[in-house]
Specification:
The relative contact order is 0.14. The chain folds into three domains: about 1-65, SH3 type barrels; about 65-125, Nucleic acid-binding proteins (OB fold (Dihydrolipoamide Acetyltransferase, E2P)), CATH 2.40.50.140; about 130-185, Beta Barrel (OB fold (Dihydrolipoamide Acetyltransferase, E2P)). About 0% of the residues lie in helices and about 55% in strands. A six-stranded antiparallel β-sheet has the order 1-6-2-3-4-5, with no helix packed on it. The protein is flat. By secondary structure, the protein is mainly beta. The N and C termini lie far apart (about 45 Å).
């Protein structure tokens, strides 16, 4: 069934030029001249790479129906990430390159959706937000209270994100897995 740009939601899975993509982010944009467009950030489910594309408003795509199976992330050995099916206990190994940027937000025992097209594995979909511990960051300087000032922080998974100055080592923060951005501190 075709889907057009006005029906995009985060997580919508579409086919573009023979490749399967998941909509990570979208924004309707009406420039001063010309027709409206839809700006998107799409994740290729096979390679894990993220691309930004702009489409004309109303452009149609084939929506792809994916089978979702719950998997639990167990561990990684540096090259592969190992997941276990929560029903059958079958294990699969996925190369880090195939996961792409989302590998930095995988913590042991996290439940994810494995996506299958025609019975073949195509990708992993994380929950929208995950809670992760800050393991490395510089202390905020007293008096630095200007709004929206951010600093680098290392997460327990090895990923690095930008956080507000008041965040310190040991804090648990909520991270948006689609954008890789700080959401809030978890108490």
């Amino acid at each position: 069934m075709p889907v057009d740009t006005s029906q995009f939601k985060n997580g919508t899975i579409i086919e573009i030029e023979g490749e399967i993509y998941s909509v990570v982010w979208f924004q309707h944009h009406k420039p001063g001249k010309g027709g409206a467009v839809m700006r998107t950030k799409l994740r290729n489910l096979k390679s894990g790479s993220t691309v930004e594309r702009t489409f004309k408003s109303g452009e149609k795509f084939r929506e792809v129906e994916m089978e979702r199976k719950k998997k639990e992330f167990m561990y990684n050995d540096g090259k592969n990430y190992f997941f276990m099916d929560t029903k059958t206990y079958e294990q699969i190994a996925i190369p880090k390159e195939q996961l792409g940027e989302i590998a930095g937000f995988l913590k042991e025992n996290t439940t994810v959706d494995a996506l299958y097209l025609d019975g073949n594995y195509t990708g992993i979909e994380l929950p929208a937000n995950v809670a992760l511990k800050i393991v490395e960051t510089v202390p905020g300087v007293k008096g630095d209270t200007v709004t929206n000032v951010m600093k680098e922080a290392g997460l327990e998974t090895g990923a690095t994100i930008k956080v507000p100055l008041f965040i310190k080592e040991g804090d648990i923060v909520l991270v948006d897995t689609r954008t890789g951005e700080y959401v809030e501190r978890v108490s």
